[in-house]
Sequence to fold (168 residues):
Amino acid sequence: MPKRRCLSIKKNVVAELKGERMLLKDQLKKESVEALKAGNKKKVGMLRYLVSLLDKKEMQLPPGQMKSGDELAVLKKELKNKEESREMFEKAKRAELVAEVEEEIVLVKKYLPQEMGEDELKKIIDEVLGQNEGANFGQIMGQVMAKTEGRADGTLVAKMVSQKISGK
Fold:
């Protein structure tokens, strides 16, 4: 197992030397060290947790197959979990836990790409609907989500697609 870890480290170093984009995991590790030096224990803990989630995902994939899309999927899943936790804490009237989870949500959102706006999303939906006249909801959703490249919330997309289909 250590060979696998060394291999991924070597690949990242080679990628940096070639001028390729630094992996999100490497960025998280770097910022974790900076936060540790600054004495921000909460941030260090959260960043280490995110790195461990990414490591776990990387171990599930064949060596060297971790892509930025996989990293973003892990972070989005964690963001969703944090938002659900926040809702539960709000229902239980646990203000101190809500505040703590809010900080974690802000930290996770920092590493995710900007969400797509509704206007931009409408253009994509109209484009897909124009290309696929007789398609069903599932086919349209699949194509729209592929074009948004993970920058749009699935529930918002589903709502907008169903409105467009029923409005036709």
Observations:
- The CA atoms of residues 125 and 161 lie 7 Å apart.
- The first helix runs from residue 2 to 17.
- The helical segments are 2-17, 24-38, 41-60, 68-91, 95-110, 118-131, 137-148, 154-167.
- Residues 118-167 form a domain with the Arc Repressor Mutant, subunit A fold (CATH 1.10.10).
